[in-house]
Amino acid sequence: MSGEKGYDNRSLAIADMIRSHLVEHRQKSGNADIAGTITLVYDHHKPHLQATLTSIQHDHHNVILSTVHVHLDHHNCLEVLLVRGKAAVIRRIADELVTAKGVKHGRLTVTTTGKDLPT
């Protein structure tokens, strides 16, 4: 793995693995500040879905930093929301969006805000 990723030495590879586990651990703590993305794929022709997703996003404008919306084809859209806030809040918003009727696939991907990890 060290060679495949291009690390100069094993110590750097091990440090990266530790950071990855620290980020994963912190996102499980409800009070931890995290950053990440919520990715959704859905059919925009599904009745009331667009309004539901927009309403959820407006309700949480304080943690949703930006949204990218892409038309994949005539029916399907890809939407990526950039988020930052308390882990429990971000997970709850992601669950609400991903489970909205008509969403075909969704995923929360988290990372650190960077404040808690040394360089």
| Radius of gyration of CA atoms, rounded to a whole number | 17 Å
- CATH topology-level name: Alpha-Beta Plaits
Number of domains: 1
How many individual helices? 4
**Briefly, what CATH class?**
Alpha Beta
Question: SSE order, as H and E?
Answer: HHEHEEHE
Proportion in β-strands: 25-35%
Query: How is the biggest beta sheet arranged?
Result: 4 strands, antiparallel
Distance between the termini: 21 Å
What is the name of the CATH architecture? 2-Layer Sandwich
Please provide the count of β strands: 4
Question: Percent of residues in helical segments?
Answer: 25-40%
Structural shape: globular
Report the oligomer.
Answer: single chain
Strand order of the largest sheet: 2-3-1-4
- Pick out the low-confidence regions: none
List the helices and strands and how they pair.
Layout: H1 2-5, H2 10-27, E1 33-43, H3 49-59, E2 64-71, E3 76-86, H4 87-98, E4 103-112
What does this structure look like?
By secondary structure, this protein is of the alpha+beta class. The chain has helices at residues 2-5, 10-27, 49-59, 87-98; strands at residues 33-43, 64-71, 76-86, 103-112. The chain has a single domain, classed as 2-Layer Sandwich (Alpha-Beta Plaits). The protein starts with a helix and ends in a 7-residue tail after the last strand.
